[in-house]
Design a protein that fits this description.
Blueprint (H helix, E strand, L loop, with lengths): L2 H9 L7 E5 L2 E7 L6 E6 L5 E5 L4 E6 L4 E6 L6 E6 L5 E5 L4 E5 L6 E5 L9 E6 L5 E5 L3 E5 L6 E5 L6 E6 L5 E5 L4 E5 L6 E4 L8 E6 L5 E5 L4 E6 L4 E6 L7 E6 L5 E5 L4 E6 L4 E6 L7 E7 L2 E6 L4 E7 L4
Antiparallel strand pairs: 1-2, 2-29, 3-4, 4-5, 5-6, 7-8, 8-9, 9-10, 11-12, 12-13, 13-14, 15-16, 16-17, 17-18, 19-20, 20-21, 21-22, 23-24, 24-25, 25-26, 27-28, 28-29
Length: 325
């Protein structure tokens, strides 16, 4: 860790006071982070902490929900991190668009390792990443690319998306298939891990703006549609689609996450809320933020907990499911 990283890590150890509100069988807590830090994505770790990207300051952070404290580490000069996920090695891996690289941060000493994209893909505009079952890291670049990285060897391959600009969210299914969503292209695509080719699948709503994608336990793909305000599900087994419009006027569905009970969580910028959808009852629960312009850009979770970054307020939000007894 260099001096800049050490200072960033040391000075950002701050105590915060989580607040919460009761909402039926759910409880919402807010964890304020530094104003202006530019929160974007997050992912819970096995040790109970939560890693988050601070795009505005070029940092990765780690929140301890028990104490409400957090630390940050600089990812390097010009860094602008977007997505973060936990790898098989237990470390956070980041799509670091500012340096056009995939970044790994050691959870122990916070050492940053960069895997840079080839120069000919210098403006990939990296977005999100996911690990497949073999330990290969797959990522998207909104300028019209997707790619893969073999962490052990450092070998990287980058591919041009079939419809150009747009690749955004990415997910892996329980069956091991890799899918990404294209915001500008308004489609989802399955990647062949052997050839790297992407097979486009068109949702039923034209120009819907498929932004993020997540798999449920049955390997069905749930898609948040930014332009249409819909949540859709695609079953690759039979090619079927189902679509629901989020409640309210002119919804804007940004993030999507499917929890361990196969309930679907989304964020709606227009409603300033996180929305829970039950595919069985086809009913929505709406969890409005207690502050305006929350702009939750990404969701992730673990059993009983839903996590998101309020980029507009630089707060991390957690919604707990309260169980009887």
């Amino acid at each position: 860790m260099n001096r800049r990283q050490f200072l960033a890590s040391s000075t950002a150890l701050l105590a915060v006071r989580p607040s919460f509100a009761q909402e039926g069988p759910f409880r919402t807590k807010y964890f304020p982070i530094s104003p202006g830090i530019g929160l974007h994505d997050l992912t819970p770790a096995a040790d109970g902490t939560v890693w988050f990207t601070a795009q505005g300051k070029g940092m990765l952070g780690r929140l301890d929900p028990k104490s409400g404290t957090f630390k940050t580490v600089s990812l390097g000069q010009g860094a602008a991190p977007h997505g973060v996920t936990i790898g098989p090695d237990g470390a956070p891996w980041i799509t670091e668009g500012g340096q056009n690289a995939i970044a790994r941060v050691d959870p122990g000493d916070l050492k940053v390792t960069l895997f840079r994209l080839p120069e000919k893909f210098a403006y990939a505009n990296l977005n999100t990443g996911v690990f497949d079952k073999t330990g290969i890291y797959w990522f998207t670049g909104q300028s019209g690319y997707y790619g893969r990285l073999a962490p052990k060897s450092g070998e990287m391959s980058v591919f041009k998306a079939p419809k150009g600009v747009g690749p955004y969210g990415i997910a892996v299914t329980p069956k091991g298939d890799i899918w990404y969503a294209s915001l500008a292209g308004s489609y989802i695509a399955r990647i062949d891990p052997a050839s790297g080719n992407a097979a486009v699948v068109e949702p039923p709503t034209p120009n819907q703006g498929s932004r993020r994608v997540w798999s449920d336990s049955k390997s069905r793909l749930w898609v948040s549609e930014w332009n249409s305000g819909h949540v859709s599900v695609h079953d690759p087994a039979d090619g079927s689609w189902k679509t629901w419009k989020l409640p309210g006027e002119r919804p804007r569905a940004y993030a999507v996450y499917v929890d361990d009970k196969d309930k679907v969580w989304l964020t709606d910028f227009s409603a300033n809320a996180i929305v829970r959808f039950d595919p069985v009852t086809e009913q929505f629960n709406v969890f409005a933020s207690d502050k305006a312009n929350a702009n939750v850009r990404q969701l992730d979770g673990r059993p009983g907990e839903l996590w998101g970054c309020e980029s507009g307020n630089d707060r991390i939000v957690m919604i707990q499911t309260i169980t009887a007894g």
